[in-house]
Amino acid sequence: MAHQKRVEPQLHAYLTSTTELAEQQAEAAALTLAEHPDSASPLCGIPMALKDVLCVQGVETTASSKVLAGFRPPYTATAVQRLFDAGAVCVGKTNCDEFAMGSSNENSAFGAAGNPWDVERVPGGSSGGSAATVGAGVVPYALGTDTGGSIRQPASLCGVVGFKPTYGRVSRYGLIAFASSLDQIGPLALSVEDCALVFAVIAGHDPRDSTSDPSPVEDPQPALGRGVDGLRLGVPREYFGAGIDAGVRGCVEDALHVLEAQGARLREVSLPSTEVALSTYYIIAPAECSSNLARYDGVRFGLREEQPSLTDMYLRTRAAGFGDEVKRRVMLGTYALSSGYYDAYYRQAQKVRTLIAAEFASVFESVDALVSPTSPTVAFTMGERDDPLSMYMCDVVTLPANLAGLPGISVPCGFIDSLPVGLQVLAPRFQDARVFQVANAYQRATDWHATRSPLADAAA
Amino acid sequence: MTQTAEAASSAVLARYEPVIGLEVHAQLLTRSKMFCGCSADYTAAAPNDNTCPVCLGLPGVLPVINRQAIEYAVRTALALECEIPSFTKFDRKNYFYPDLPKGYQISQYDLPLSLNGRLRFEVEGEPASCGITRVHLEEDTGTLHHAGDVLQSATSSLVDLNRCGVPLMEIVGEPDLRSAAAAHEYLVRLRQLLVYIGVNDGNLEKGSFRCDANISMRPRGASEYGVKVEIKNMNSFRAVRLALEYELERQVAVLDGGGALTQETRGWVEARRQTVSQRSKEYAHDYRYFPEPDLPPLRLDAEFVDRVRATLPELPAARAMRFHEQYQLSRYDAAVLTAAVEDADAFEGLVDAGVAAKTAANWLMGDVAALANEHKVPLHASGLGVEGLRRLLALVETGTINAPTAKELLGELYVSGGDAEALVRDRGLAQVSDEAQLAEAIDAAIAANPDAAADFRAGLEKALGRMVGHVMKATGNKAQPQLVNRMLRERLAR
Question: Residue A295: inside a domain, yes or no?
């Protein structure tokens, strides 16, 4: 926490420090470790941080939005509660793009977090604060959420490991929704093993989330040591195409050779629907968000702009409470669902989504996992991408996995001018262990993940 | 309706045909709300006490489907002869209002839980029926209390979310009804059915059973529908009938005057006995329905539907028919006795226990019905109960007490309960059926009514009644009436 204090002025990774909670949890953890050292979870007593879209009872939870400033939920998210029950020590709530909408953290209503490799650059988003604080060595892991790449892309930009589980594997209860059919909670950590440890604790059915899957969770531990010998890895042609920075492509190709050297068999595959995935995503996600964000109306909690009439109260509250990107998506989504446009946009997007999922399923008949870059570029400078479309391009190779509900990970695979590059691994639905298997095989053969950021070095 | 209004209305109906379809919203009698664990009985709690993060729509919470609500809706759909598709899903209906905390209502749009049903009833003795478009599930909203008449002009409004999330079933009827009377009958039968199968309490006043009506008029013989108007705010059967009658005359007046009707929503104002325009089509909401992503679609397999079907009681129409045939009751008596499931059960309970069907029917429809009405407590919930009535009637059957004594006891037992046999014993109410004991009272009655005795001897049968009354009075109503009758005849014939 001393380190947190030291780097925080530059990094701005936290919106709330939960010092008191951390002290209580640390004391309880110390007791557990003293009394039951053998049965204690490996996460017992380990500090961690939570993206500010995850509810913790009594702790201010804002989703980086003015509309929720001061909101203290009377409940704790299931995934968070499972970590708390395992003895986790929560040091704070991390910065993110408002309602998890963005790829640079610049959409936070409370100012962007910085990148631990260069604080003038973005940490990625939307789980930017979580990636930044792990990358800066403040906590060994943090939870983020991934709707279109919001765990994997910031992990890539901050040089850490970020895992998005299969949709339905981790309960969304207590996660402030952006797009319900795409959102998934997952860990960001310094290693694949750590991600697997956290995943094993948070995964599993929750009766409070009807979209959480009732099937048993495969223990990821055995897969970690399995290696990739004989594994068929697909290399999607479209994920290396236009828009992918040449340097990034080079790093990832080197990574593929490392995997090949481990015995993996590489095979080029094609996912032709990739070019429509972005537009499909930008219909479905805003449509769901326009509905999910309707509850921020000033009536019961959060911000209220008092007005003589109800309609004006609604309009002023939402105008003052939401940032530009949130408003843009609420408008896009409202439009896509409107009568007369529904068939052309929302219904069509759902059909394409089904097609994208079918395409993945078909490719996975001939390969065991897919490997690609995570982000088209390394971390860019704050303010550099000022038009929404170029920002949306950040997620072009991550968001198809959300549309199909696949598990995916980003692991560090090199540097360009001292800025980290990420390798993405995707696997079929509920093959989360396979993702860990491939990623850990790569990590054991390389030491990119062990390279410390300048801010992490400041800890020493 | 006054007679002149009736005459005017029949003149109108000679030229125009009303086309009416009803939409009913019925709260389900589940223990908990539609998507959370809060009680579905929201009336007892202080404002906003019967709530939780889920029904308050707080950020991050998720709905979980109430299984019992699905069963009740399927039970209703089966009772209404609906098809139950194997695949159904929930959708979000989006609109802003302070009684709707999430900014959307979870409802069902294009794939409802059931469709294509029928409700059969009678209008003025003639068999009639109305198609059921669909029965679907949704959640109720909260309630608003305005400091002022309506939200728009209120200086402040209070929001109570206790009702928010209560399971609500929407039953959409086809536009098959052709008169206000038919609409009224449809509604009465539908309410009866829902109460009968135990899914709804049928309370219009409290709003657990609510009705909106769509009505349009077309010239007799026309096949096209006219412009329809939706009527809301009717909270009694009478209001539905009055509102429809008012509206059909209003519409005809507009049409006859060469005017055009506008598609709109009108509210029934009870005090003024009028419908008043609330919202026209241009201001209709675009609800932006889309599939609820927080709830996976439901698959209702045949096994589940069959299991629900097995929970269906015999429905009122079928039961009335059986009562008519099996117990030789008149159609009218059979209909009255099957109107409420408890009454029908009481009747069959008495008959099964050996009470003659006609006797059971007479008691239930006569003295028992009067007491139920007087005390506003049905038999099964009264101090007497069905078993108490059975034991009381058994005393009559065995001749221990006579009918007048039983009637006297009935009123007392109905309110306070108690053991009929013990009362009879303690108060010495057993009837006198010993000729020797009655002989003196018989003679006294003849002596006290010489005129009646003479009249009877002269052939006037009814003159006997006065002497029977005298004996009954003298014996404190305990004499066995048939015996008194026979003994008087014997004495007077001498």
Answer: no
